[in-house]
Amino acid sequence: MLHVIIVGAGISGLTCAITLAKYTHVQVTVLERAAVMDKAGNGIQVPCNAAHAMRCLGLLDKLLVKTNGPATAFLNLKYDDGEILLHKDLTRCEELYGAPWLLIHRADYMTVLLDEARRVGVRIRLGCDVDGVDFDTPSVKLQNGHVYQADVVVGCDGINSTIRSIMHPSTQPVPTGEYAYRALFTRSQLSSPSFQHLLSTAGISRCWMGPLANAVFYPLQEGTLFNLVIAIADPNFNSNTCDEQALLPSVRARLSGWDPTLLEMLDAASHLVRFPLYQVDKLPFWSKGCVTLTGDAAHAMPPHLAQGAATGVEDGFILGTLLGRSSQQASGPARRAQLRAVLRAYEGLQHDRTAQIVSGSRFTGMLDHLPQGPDQRARDAEFAMYDPEKTVSAMPWIDARTNRKLLGRKVDEVAEGEVARLLAAGEFADRGTKL
After folding, report:
1. What is the C-alpha to C-alpha distance for residues 61 and 204, in angstroms, rounded to an integer?
2. Confidence check: pLDDT of 245 > 90
3. CA 213, CA 286: separation in Å to the nearest integer?
């Protein structure tokens, strides 16, 4: 048996666990710090590359049940009057990129993953606070002193990763200078006639773009809930501390002069939740011994390309496939050498790619937050000429080639291609037995 310990039961960790558990010779244990799995949270976008991975795992239809079907459009709007600057037709995603785009509540996403993980036999241990790792054994030590040993340890423990902090003790998450302000609305909270054009069209994300801020709004749970997240990159505003009661009027005042529909929406909100945004700059390596990193632990990023969780899904699926396809014929030092080769192969597929996406996300946020002026007018002019198949642009959000590479990633084909390369190089003999 190949025993894999996954630290962290988030989206990336559970994707990796489910992928691994589909192989008969793999035993997977997930160690999660929380004593109870949190079903809170807000909306999350599932772009095409992540949706394709979910389809490969047989989970896409289960996710679609939790939504009102695939997303239909993404609209970039002028901040002060809601004028449409760019209309991305997401109904073409299947045609252009091979999978749909989804809008889902994070709790629903997690429920589908947790249910599947348990169904395929993943052992999930809650209340396991990992505070040490041995890269040679490999093993992890819990705060209570208990030690778990395995053939491979995967650190999927998020932006404040313990595994990363031990692997790279001098590396810390870097503040982007932005804060996110989130709210959830019920349909009854948005009963004003001002909102009817927002509620009557299913599956549409709207993004108001303005000076040092943007606001994204979209429906969840078949149009019974609505997600709003405002990203503010104004250091003078974000440095002001205020209690939760003062947060809502403070943000509304900061957005004075923005689209009246958005301001009326803030008037309808019960409260806002505020948190800073961070990124993890490109690490020199993700793997040490038979220990590796995935998701936010390896490459946390701003949300402006909707790729944070999606790249974590890619990581989990590719790593799980490569490990699952590896043979058990070797043992001892030869076995460890084989597993290290697999981790190097995984890192080779994802390390540079995710670094480029982190950079692209940061750049896209900067473009979303342009003040009025020549740069903003040049951006809007390019938006007006957008063609999903032909546009050539320095802006990742609209460049056709970038979107094909980003959204059209077929993780199953990528992983199988790497398996073929490893086999040809004699790195391992194909085990490949699925349940």
Report:
1. 19
2. no
3. 33
% of the chain beyond a pLDDT of 70: 97
Q: Would you kindly state where each structural domain of the chain is located, as residue ranges?
A: 2-173+280-425, 178-274
C-alpha distances in angstroms, 193 versus 16, 215, 259?
Answer: 45, 20, 15
- CATH homologous superfamily for the domain 2-173+280-425: FAD/NAD(P)-binding domain (3.50.50.60)
Quote the tokens at residue 148: 């778990």
CA gap 355, 405 in Å, rounded: 14
Amino acid at 122: V
End-to-end CA distance of the chain, in Å? 14
Q: Which CATH architecture has domain 178-274?
A: 2-Layer Sandwich (3.30)
Residue 328 has pLDDT above 70, yes or no: no
pTM: 0.96
Between strands 130-134 and 84-89, the pairing is unpaired
Strand order across the beta sheet in which 139-142 lies? 130-134, 139-142, 147-149
152-198: per-residue pLDDT in tens? 999 999 999 999 999 999 999 999 999 999 999 999 999 999 999 99
Residues 15-60: pLDDT tens digits?
Answer: 999 999 999 999 999 999 999 987 778 999 999 999 999 999 999 9
Please determine whether the domains at 2-173+280-425 and 178-274 fall in the same fold group of CATH: no
CA 27 to chain centre: 25
Q: Express the helix, strand and coil content of the chain in percent, nearest 5 each.
A: 40, 25, 35
Structure tokens that stand for 310 in this block = 């999606």
